[in-house]
Amino acid sequence: MPTHEPDRRETGPSLERILGLIDPGMLDVVVAPRGTGVPVTDVVLHDPGEEREDDGARAAAGLILLAVGVEAASPEALDVLRAADRAGAAAVVMRPGARGPRAELVEAAGRGRTALLTRRPEQGWTEVLGRLRTALVHSDPTGTTGVAGLRPGDLSGLANTVAALVGGAITIEDPQSRVLAYSRLDHEPDPMRRLTILGQEVPRWRVDELRASGFFRTLWSTEDVVRLPADDRYAERLAIAVRHGSEVLGSIWAAADGRPLAEDAAAALRTAARAAVPHLSHHQTWGLAAARAREGAVHALLRGDARSAREAGVTADRPYAVVVAEAYDGREEEAYDGRGADAYDGHSDGRGAGAPEGRGAGRAGLRVLDVLALQAAAYRPGCVTARSGRRLYVLVPAGDGEAGPARTLLASARSVPRDVVLAGAGPVAAGPAGLPASREAAELVVRVLRERAARLPAGEVRSAVAAYDEVVPEATVLRLLDRVEPLWRSLAGPVHAMVEHDRVHGSAYGDSVIAYLDASCDTGTAARSLNVHPNTLRYRLRRARELFGVDPADPAVRLLAEIGLRLAARRSDRPGSP
Predict the structure, then answer these.
(1) Separation of alpha carbons 532 and 524, rounded Å
(2) Can you tell me the distance from the alpha carbon of 338 to that of 334, in angstroms, rounded to the nearest whole number?
(3) What's the pLDDT score for residue 574?
(4) DSSP string, 265-314
(5) Cα 519 from chain centroid?
(6) How far apart are CA 323 and CA 311, in angstroms?
(7) How far is CA 292 from CA 286, 325, 340, in A?
(8) Which three-class secondary structure state does DSSP give residue 35?
């Protein structure tokens, strides 16, 4: 067997480490004549047409070559392997084919120095390339690109860490100036930061302004920090591009956050740019797919599948409170079915802005949920989110029996202008098994807030937040009505007759009776709520008694009217109801 003296230029993580960081079963090691401890310097696509005998023996030293289009059972596979071996490649990957590698190929690999790997049939080359390159970035042996305690792709955690080092507000953006993450808001942001966060991207006019001034040209062409001086509109900003080789993955921006940036802010950003490489690479390569899988796990967890806790990113022995935020449009709630991303075609651009309008809030109205999801990620490490229709579900880590963190997060809903958000927090669950009950309670809070909003003129409806323990009486009434409704439909009586008359003839006897009861039988107050003269209300109440036998002075009738008219109002809000 030929011997191989290690080349001093072959530095990098081992093949074993790279394979350990990708999905198990994605690649199979057929033969590794030097073992899997050989260093890897890069992952590239192999083009046999570029092979040259006079390249020198080290043209591909330390590379993993992906032999796209080459099947291990084909005659050309042996030529590809020999060429890779001459070039000093660490490994070559081929498609196995139906019969697997030929015996001649396996024997040749055993006599050489390049490992022979095969790709599983169900894996695409694009995915294999992305996973290997991201694993390579995460395996930087110098340790300069990692941040202790952050999981791969945790851009929000990275933003908060960098903010502490820089002493300012951090935004991480992709090359198209779209917001991927930002640090938590410790101070009131300046107008540009607020616009960028709420819009999830730098405003187009600002991008055009920076492009015209040559700022972006400088940012993308240098590896150093670029300064954007303060002016009469916005605070000073520092920015640096995040690069992996010649590829620009995105940028990190630091803004003065109510105080001057630290003296060593530029040095901290240089370190941050190196630290961001594996996280942005992870996001770019499979962040969206992982996010979809994680969202599905969150929905499974909220349905009661405690086994999904780990995949959802939830610590099994940590208490959580479920927060539900709904983009309000005046309609009845959508029942939770846990379909998550399948409930809409959303996330087409990886940022949650692709949801169709559907039956609920329009695309513009749903954008507020994307903003809240970003705020949740920036607010506290360990927050996980999932979308379903026009609702956002947030699992917030809580202290011992305290719902304080959830309430703090809910307050952020009030900071979103124009859009109306109704948000509720369920009780703290001690573990994953209690999350479905916390979810149901949070949804009840949202229903209570929606019913309150429905009683207001459209122009007076504002975002509202509450915790379950603040709305227990109203939430209990909703639970009772849910149970009573099937029975009520099978019955008949004075209230049923009045409701049917209102439905057929468009009269308002039911509205008059319920307003009178809500006003504790005070005619003046009830008349003002209906915007009618008290005598008009008295006439309607008298006719309701004469026509249907609905007498508010009768305690039994009052109880039935409360139940029946509330149920009638609920049904009339439903699209397509008679």
Answers:
(1) 10
(2) 11
(3) 44
(4) HHHHHHHHHHHHHHHHHHIIIIIHHHHHHHHHHHHHHHHT-GGGHHHHT-
(5) 44
(6) 19
(7) 10, 19, 9
(8) coil
Report helix, strand or coil for 13: coil
Give the integer Cα–Cα distance in Å for 475 and 378. 30
Name residue 462's amino acid.
R
Give the pLDDT of residue 61: 81
Q: What is the pLDDT of residue 341?
A: 39
Ordered strands of the 169-173 beta sheet: 179-182, 169-173, 247-255, 237-244, 226-228
Beta-strand pair 169-173/247-255: antiparallel
Question: Can you spell out the DSSP letters for 95-160?
Answer: E--SS-S-HHHHHHHHHSSSEEEEE-TTS-HHHHHHHHHHHHHHT-TT-TT--TTPPTT-HHHHHH
For position 409, what pLDDT does the model report?
A: 60
Strand, coil or helix: what is 548?
helix
User: Are the CB atoms for 509 and 543 separated by under 8 Å?
Assistant: yes
Residue with tokens 């990190």, as numbered in its chain? 252
* Six token digits for residue 156: 């929000």
Residues of the chain with pLDDT under 50: 1-9, 52-58, 141-146, 340-364, 400-402, 574-578
DSSP secondary structure code for residue 14 in this structure: B
